[in-house]
Design a protein that fits this description.
Number of strands: 0
Distance between the termini: 42 Å
Order of helices and strands: HHHHH
Strand content: under 5%
Number of helices: 5
Largest sheet: none
Helix content: over 70%
Structural class: mainly alpha
């Protein structure tokens, strides 16, 4: 990512210089060509960043979420009641995700899924 940024800065600077020189020259094809090349590079760079950011959106493990909550509680940022409420919410959300996986694999029927889901949501 860093290399692409450096290349982008150099390429963009070169394009600005080329366009500046081409402005004094009646033949502006060189400036237009450099501008198109920089635009294409920018487009590719934007797509790479978008794909990488999408792939890095991995869910935070439950244990990590609970450790963060505990740390907030220990530092006095949240009350014990808030900690317990969030802890319950995290654990029940994990149960819902596992339940959804069971349904998608075909290990449980849609009716079983809905019954368990209703039961879990009633605990919230």
């Amino acid at each position: 990512m860093r290399a692409m940024s450096i290349i982008g800065i150099i390429l963009f600077s070169s394009c600005l210089l080329a366009v500046g020189f081409a402005a004094n020259n009646p033949n502006v094809h060189m400036g237009v060509g450099w501008t198109i090349m920089a635009s294409l590079y920018g487009l590719v760079f934007a797509i790479v960043v978008l794909v990488k950011s999408h792939l890095s959106n991995k869910p935070v493990p439950v244990t990590e979420q609970l450790l963060r909550l505990r740390e907030l509680w220990e530092r006095g940022v949240i009350t014990e009641g808030q900690f317990m409420q969030k802890k319950t919410q995290v654990l029940l959300t994990e149960q819902l995700l596992k339940l959804r996986e069971l349904r998608e694999r075909g290990d449980i029927t849609e009716d079983q899924f809905m019954q368990k889901k209703t039961q879990i949501l009633s605990e919230l």
